[in-house]
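Quick look at the format.
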Amino acid sequence: MTVVQKSGKSGSHFNPYSALFRADERKLVMTSTICWAAMVAFLLCVSTIIGPLALLKVYGVPYLIFVMWLDTVTYLHHHGHEQKLPWYRGKVCPLPIL
């Protein structure tokens, strides 16, 4: 699968020799691809043991909840206005605390 990026480069995220990556990043891409494939193989093996529905309940639903939570937090961090910033992100209190 070839993907065209904003930078104008095209290639696959799974191919270490793709134009998307520098030569020094090839080992990292290979490691990522091997780990991704190993996880898919592991999940397929587990689904044959406990069944696909049980795997969906134990792994799939919590994964989807985590991804939705991560997307929500990322959206809120990148789309806040200065007046909406919470105190822990550097908002200055307009009234002095005595």
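Next, a different chain entirely:
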Amino acid sequence: MDRRAELGEFLRSRRARRQPEDLGLTPVGGRRRVPGLRREELAQAAALSVDYYVRLEQGRLRNPSAEIVDAVAAALALDPTERRHLHNLARPGRPSGQVRTLLPAAFQTVLDNVHVPAAIYSRHGDILAWNPLAAALLIDFAALPPQERNMPRLVFLNDEVASRFVFWKRKARDLVSQLRMESGRTPGDEKLAALVGELSMRSAEFARMWATHHVREKTRGGHHYRHPVVGEFYLRYETFRPPDDPDIALVCQVADPGTPDDEALRLLASWSTQAPEGMTRAIARSGRSAADVCAGPEQPGH
């Protein structure tokens, strides 16, 4: 992915969302061939010369000031996440480093002592470590080849994982937006470019979502799950990043105490304890209820 091309596409996509009237401007010129602000109008709103703005949009400015980027962001009415993304693209910082693939043993110890679904992810969405509840919720990660343990790849290309999300498009859009945000933060990241290229080729829906240039930080939120044993329930998630290693994230999912969602999570925990991780998919596909599974094996004739 070329940073200059990304910058130009992002700014053009955001110009298309705004009209001269939104900024109190008189439209420039006659009939418009494309929707939104023209470069001249955005330059005027940001108090820049047209030539300077054109060079910014084309990525020909080596290091525009933060004030100039903020002025363009204000004229485009960017939200805080989009503003950070624009700064990442227009004023790139550190180059992408090595992607972490191994974690200290202490991380797995922490996961094993967290009594809710929890996993550790890389900045590309690679699932680096997980606890049994996380596997019971989604898929037996241990049974997958390491290169397939990636949430964007699983959500777009694995039917079993996709079926877990009641609102699949919402989950898919969040993942694409997070990858977009990461592409601006770490320009020149070859692994990320390869992942985006693969998903764009294999999933028309991914390619369509990628072209929207939506951006989002992974912080907190929630998902409605559809589990073949437990049924439908809702979990909230919180993201924690080590201050000395922001390239990885611990994501924990919780249910509100005393709710049906909390009861469903307790059933999932009980089921996952009874069913070894390597057996979870087979038991889930059997159609048995969580209560049946927790009660023990089926008896002949039942």
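The longest strand covers residues 231-240.

See the schema section for token definitions.
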